[in-house]
Specification:
The chain contains one helix and nine strands; from the N terminus they run βββββββββα. It is an alpha+beta fold. Strands 3-4-5 form a three-stranded antiparallel sheet, with no helix packed on it. Strands 1-2 form a two-stranded antiparallel sheet. The relative contact order is 0.11.
């Protein structure tokens, strides 16, 4: 069993090897090849993100992981975005309007100072 980049999926006993295309994973990470239990997914976590580096392809290096607890595996689920698109778009539009308003204020102030200087000089 490999990821899209060709890296082997690791279980608690090393690389997970399947002999059929009838695999499934239960909510605790147990991997079945047909009806036979093959291994359990090795789910880890880190105490702190300090010192972690991304290698790409979903790989992380730089700290000693520990086995995770309190998780649930949902086979076939796709993780959703943690960004609310409509809210972020609204915030972006508000920021853009504030930026434009501030730019107009600065332009008006610059024109006012320029006209005052022209009148003072002559």
């Amino acid at each position: 069993m490999v990821n899209p980049s060709g890296y082997s999926l690791l279980g608690t006993r090393g690389q997970i090897r399947l002999t059929t295309d009838q695999m499934h994973v239960d909510s605790q990470g147990a991997v079945y090849d047909g009806e036979q239990l093959v291994d359990s997914l090795r789910i880890v976590e880190f105490d702190t993100p300090v010192g972690l580096s991304k290698l790409g392809d979903g790989l992380i290096v730089g700290a000693v992981p520990r086995l995770a607890a309190g998780y649930e595996i949902i086979q076939g689920a796709v993780e959703g975005s943690n960004v609310q698109v409509v809210t972020e778009l609204q915030r972006m539009m508000t920021s853009m309007r504030l930026y434009e308003a501030n730019a107009r204020v600065l332009q008006t102030q610059d024109e006012t100072i320029g006209s005052l200087l022209r009148e003072a000089v002559g």
